[in-house]
Amino acid sequence: MLLPRWLIKLGFHLLYYQMAWTYDVVAWSVSFGQWATWRRLALPFLQPGPTLELAYGTGALFAELTEAGYQPVGVDLSPYMARLASRRLRRGGLPLRLNRARAQRLPFPSDYFANVVATFPTDYMLAQDTIAEIQRVLRCAAESQPPGRLVVVFEGQLRGTWPLRPLIDWLYEVTGQRNLPPAKPLSLLNRGGFAARWEWVEREGAVARLLIAEKIVNSEL
Questions:
Q1: N or C end of the chain: smaller count of CB under 10 Å?
Q2: 176-191 pLDDT, tens per residue?
Q3: Across the strands, what pairs with 215?
Q4: Which domain holds residue 101?
Q5: Number of domains into which the chain is organized
Q6: The pTM is what?
């Protein structure tokens, strides 16, 4: 039995806003410590060049992107997350290229980013205006460069024989986190000017489902 959608949304909202200070602990707990490894599975799919992170949260992936040499910029709507991310980056002596903005109205020029990356997004990611904005800011293919790429870590998969695994599987079920129709994101992105595919990725003992989409020219746009 699924929890009411309004209750799930309220829980995620509180976790991302007023309770943002608990986010990293909650994420670590519900993933048995695999959250950071799931997140890092996006890195091998990123291309060299300017990179935009949508919903940077507490700034953990943003810091890893910076240390890997991507010179990322980030957008997030939560002022609570902005404070946490800024604190993390200052402690690491890393630049604060953070912006408060909606994914549906990105304050960046068209045809600019080599990558857009997001991890464990909510349903904003599949909104038509979000897809249109991502398509706009990603670079077009040219002789000297491949097309811009969207990389999304959608779902981590717990493995092993932990005693609490049935409980975690149940939590995924009641919150609807495993009810994403596999074809829906692909069809939405393909109609929005992308060539999209799913990838199951396994590294460092962690498994996650990633959505990889390359920008293409779409005559319907």
A1: N
A2: 455 555 558 899 999 9
A3: 194
A4: 5-215
A5: 1
A6: 0.81
